[in-house]
Amino acid sequence: MTPIHDLLDTGRGDPAVLVLHGGAGPRSVTPVVERLAPRARVLAPTHPGWSGTPRPDWCTGVDDLAVAYLDLLDDEDLEDVVVVGGSFGGWVAAEMAVRDRGRRLGALVLLDAIGPEIEGHPVRLPQPPPGAPGPDPADLAALRTYTGPGLADAKLLRRLARVRIPALLIWGEDDTVVPPAFGKAYAAAFADARFEVVPGAGHQPAVQAPGATFDLIDEFLDRLDP
User: Fold this and answer.
1) CATH match of 7-224 with 3.30.420.10
2) Which residues lie below 8 Å from residue 216, measured CB to CB, with a gap of 6+?
3) Residue 72 to residue 19: CA distance in whole angstroms
4) Residue ranges of the alpha helices (H) in the chain?
């Protein structure tokens, strides 16, 4: 049984796009969904455990989510899918690419993604500004369930060399969760990746600097379009 209980399916066009949110929840990728829906069919699931959705007891790792979303693409019979993942969602996207034996994916867009263990750059969870509400405790608990205490996978980086689809990694210049040096090492692990830094943005460039971020994404998607 699929663990996906909340799936936004909007827009139309080809190729299809799967948008995966980070620890901040589905609202953090709303600008991405709204930008891409006029040109593509966009699938945007809520990860099990976020926003009050149930998480089955067996769904405890990034690999479980990656397999579930690959199964979703199989069920929908979608090919050449572009997966856009922010933060934790980028980790899930990378794991999908590693496991994509059915060759459902066509490209990756990772926005300040976490995932690999990179020496000298531990993942630091963002802290809300003074007086601002912090993350939902249930969402944070779900994140920890999937990632484990280290918020990283020591094996992921070396596995990325087998990923042959093109990847675009976009990084906020001022990200304090995973700095640009982390993103540069992440990009270097792929066989075919481009790394771009967005000035004036932090951990959520699509929210903090949407113009520059979407220009990069649009250009990347235009190059994929025959």
Assistant:
1) no
2) 168, 170, 196, 198
3) 13
4) 30-36, 62-76, 88-99, 137-147, 156-159, 180-188, 205-208, 210-224
Let me know the angle formed at the C-alpha of 5 by 68 and 123, rounded to the nearest 5 degrees.
Answer: 60
Look up residue 105 and give its two tokens: 């994916």
Tokens of 169: 């990694």
Which tens digits make up the pLDDT trace of 98-115? 999 999 999 999 999 999
Q: What is the pLDDT of residues 54-65, one digit of tens each?
A: 999 999 999 999
DSSP state for residue 201 in the 8-state scheme: -
Which of 104, 33, 151 shows the shortest CA–CA distance to 96? 104
Tokens of 188: 């270097």
> Taking the complete model, does pTM exceed 0.85, yes or no?
yes
What whole-number distance in Å separates Cα of residue 211 and Cα of residue 183? 20
**CA-to-CA dists, residue 118 to 1, 93, 170, 194, angstroms:** 35, 18, 17, 18
What amino acid occupies position 213? T
Q: What is the DSSP letter of 28?
A: G
From residue 151, give the alpha-carbon distance in Å to each of 23, 42, 116, 137: 11, 28, 9, 16
Nearest to 223 by CA among 107, 110, 81: 107
